[in-house]
Write a structure and sequence with these properties.
By secondary structure, the chain is α+β, with helices and mostly antiparallel strands. It folds into 2 domains: about 45 residues; about 120 residues, no CATH class. It contains 9 helices and 6 strands; from the N terminus they run ααααββαββααααββ. The two termini are about 35 Å apart.
Length: about 180
């Protein structure tokens, strides 16, 4: 984490800007020593980055009848823009009806089709990797989903979509402007 936050700056340069020694910074970067929270925050700020704590999403598997199930989150999450609007090809075990299909998430309709497949067939890691909470809430009324899948997600999404609330990083929500 610290090594990636440091970017192109040298250890000497970041150590100087953060008020720590190069030896200590090296130990932190290589996991030989753990900085205090205050020291970590100071180093990350000196690197021009910020430390963000996000709520971990919990998952439950919902029975849909027969052998069918779907996974439902207990909170919504956000994706970085380049991931939320990137191109996606799902593994065949998730998108077995259209293997190899490229979903261009810059296109609203294709993103909605992707979300439909993921909500029906995706595992938690697939959903967290490709679904953005705010975009899901925005598209919710347009998604064609089996009744059981819609009902399973409705208690999380309906209150947000009805009141113009959009998820923000960390699992919190903010009112859409």
């Amino acid at each position: 984490m610290l090594r990636s936050a440091r970017g192109s700056a040298s250890q000497d340069e970041l150590a100087r800007r953060s008020g720590t020694s190069r030896t200590a910074l090296s130990a932190y970067e290589h996991g030989r020593k753990a900085p205090t929270a205050d020291t970590l925050e100071r180093i990350i700020e000196a690197a021009g980055a910020r430390l963000v704590v996000e709520r971990r999403v919990g998952w439950i598997q919902v029975e849909l009848g027969g052998p069918r199930t779907c996974w439902v989150a207990d909170a919504l999450w956000r994706l970085p823009a380049e991931e939320a609007f990137g191109d996606v090809v799902l593994p065949v075990e998730v998108n077995w009806s259209s293997p190899g299909r490229v979903y261009r998430c810059t296109h609203r309709r294709q993103r909605a089709r992707l979300y439909e497949v993921l909500l029906r067939e995706g595992q938690p890691e697939d959903l967290e990797r490709h679904v953005d909470g705010a975009l899901l809430v925005d598209a919710w009324s347009e998604l064609t989903l089996p009744t059981g899948v819609r009902a399973a997600w409705a208690s999380l999404i309906d209150p947000l979509s009805e009141h113009g609330v959009r998820p923000v990083p960390g699992g919190a929500t903010g009112r859409a402007g």
